[in-house]
Amino acid sequence: MSYEETIRIELEFWKRDILKKPSVFSKVTDNIQKKINSYIPDKVHTAITATIKTMIKGVLYGSKYTTSDIPPLEMSLIHREALVKEKIDFYCKTGAAEGGITGAGGFLLSMADFPVLIAIKIKLLFEIASLYGFDVKNFSERLYILYIFQLAFSSKKGASKVFLHIEDWEDKLHILPDNSDNFDWKTLQQEYRDYIDLAKLAQLLPVVGSAVGAVANYQLIKKLGNTAMQAYRMRILKS
């Protein structure tokens, strides 16, 4: 079996997992999340939401995320993906180290972890896009990155909706938002905040915060990297 045939199979399994209905466990987790959110002070929710919007919106304008060179067009897919996996591993370890440090610093440093982690995730997505040969200076590619971000950190129901936005991407460009103001920022913020709250809440606890911060960051970045790989495979394997 060739490399392309192998990843086509992986891609199909990923699609089925994204589109299948939420499990009982998923529904229970969502209810727990809502309960936990009710105990978090409103000012904390407001601060996190504002940070998420500010940081993620920078995707569309931040020149610091466009520094990666696009690999030669003749580079094989297996070579590209080897480089992508190296990047994911590097950013997973970077995020874990950052989460461990901020988790050990108590509440204030743990709160500071949110914008730093977002910046790490966004930078990784730009790196992955470039390695697959896509020019992140184009608005449409930055928009695709936003949808990948949202897809990775949405509830089961939300992920299915986002998937429909990026499936057959080139055929849908004419109906997608043509500027950042028309993007559904509210949904992206809520989905991302709710997704990471449960994973990151224990980072605020004394003693265990450091270990939880390291593990949570590693797993969150790993999930984002895998989602990005599958999302770009959809486009490349279709062409």
N-to-C SSE series?
HHHHHHHHHH
Compute the number of structural domains.
Answer: 1
Oligomer: single chain
Number of strands: 0
Helix segment count?
A: 10
- Could you report the average pLDDT, rounded to the nearest whole number? 78
Strand content: under 5%
Helix content: over 70%
**Structural shape:** globular
Quote the distance from N terminus to C terminus.
20 Å
Could you list the spans in which at least 5 consecutive residues all have pLDDT below 50? 103-108
Structural class, please? mainly alpha
Backbone CA Rg: 18 Å
- Main sheet overview: none
In brief:
By secondary structure, the protein is mainly α. It has helices at about 5-20, 25-40, 40-55, 75-105, 105-130, 140-150, 155-165, 170, 185-200, 210-239. It has one domain.
Please characterize this protein's 3D structure.
The chain has one domain. The chain is built from ten helices and no strands. It is 74% helix and 0% strand. About 3% of the residues have low confidence. The protein has 239 residues and is an all-alpha fold.
Question: What labels describe this entry?
Answer:
mainly alpha, single chain, EcsC family protein, 239 residues, 0% strand, EcsC
Walk me through the topology.
Blueprint: H1 3-19, H2 24-39, H3 42-57, H4 77-104, H5 106-131, H6 139-152, H7 156-166, H8 169-172, H9 185-200, H10 209-238
